[in-house]
Design a protein that fits this description.
This protein starts with a helix and ends with a strand. The radius of gyration is 25 Å and the shape is rod-shaped. 75% of the residues lie in helices and 3% in strands. It has a two-stranded antiparallel ribbon. Strand 1 (185-187) and strand 2 (195-197) form a beta hairpin. The longest helix has 61 residues, at 2-62. With 198 residues, it is mainly α. It has one domain. Helix 1 (2-62) packs antiparallel against helix 2. It has helices spanning 2-62, 69-84, 88-110, 113-117, 119-154, 158-161, 178-181; strands at residues 185-187, 195-197.
Length: 198
């Protein structure tokens, strides 16, 4: 009788251990998935602030360079594409194009000294720089959380739990060019103007 009780006790001990590990891993996956969603929301908020700033920037530049209509249309189109992008990977691709059109807008502004001295334009530049910095910090945090989450979904033994409860890999929000990834975004109007990398 005693050996049977010991065997039953060992069986239940092992079963409870596996159940406990499963519950811990499930809760860890839920926690990281929610952190991924929350950190993406932070990026989204910063991007929306920048999207809202750009029409004001375009209107200010239009006052000095009205003949640059095709550039204004490109910036507006790139902004619309970035707003409409749904996944982090698509958003990153659209953001790269949007950033390039903003560089062109600032390059045009460089040719107009009165515009560069305009108080409204200077304030918009400053706001854009702050938003670019905030986007970069939020992006780095998001990518770190996604990395941790993806490692957990692929690691043993959590990779046994993840597919059962539909915990899939998340996409990174990265830039197209790796050299841009390493450099912080800043806005400068000293020599060439525009949004510069590094």
């Amino acid at each position: 009788m005693a050996p049977i009780l010991i065997s039953v006790g060992i069986f239940f001990g092992i079963a409870f251990t596996f159940v406990g590990i499963g519950i811990y891993l499930y809760n860890r996956l839920v926690s990281l998935r929610n952190t991924v969603k929350s950190s993406w929301s932070d990026i989204d908020v910063q991007l929306k602030k920048r999207y809202d700033l750009v029409p004001n920037l375009i209107e200010t530049v239009k006052g000095y360079a009205a003949h640059e209509k095709s550039l204004f249309e490109k910036v507006t189109e790139a902004r619309s594409m970035a707003i409409g992008a749904s996944s982090p990977a698509k958003k990153a691709q659209a953001e790269d194009m949007f950033r390039e059109t903003l560089k062109s807008l600032f390059a045009v502004a460089e040719a107009y000294p009165d515009l560069k001295a305009n108080a409204n334009f200077m304030q918009l530049q400053s706001q854009l720089k702050d938003l670019e910095d905030n986007i970069e910090y939020a992006r780095r945090y998001y990518n770190a959380v996604v990395r941790d989450y993806n490692i957990l979904t692929e690691s043993v033994p959590s990779n046994l739990i993840a597919p059962l409860f539909r915990f899939g890999k998340e996409e990174f929000f990265g830039l197209e060019a790796p050299e841009l990834e390493r450099k912080p975004v800043r806005v400068s109007f000293r020599k060439t103007g525009g949004v510069e990398e590094g």
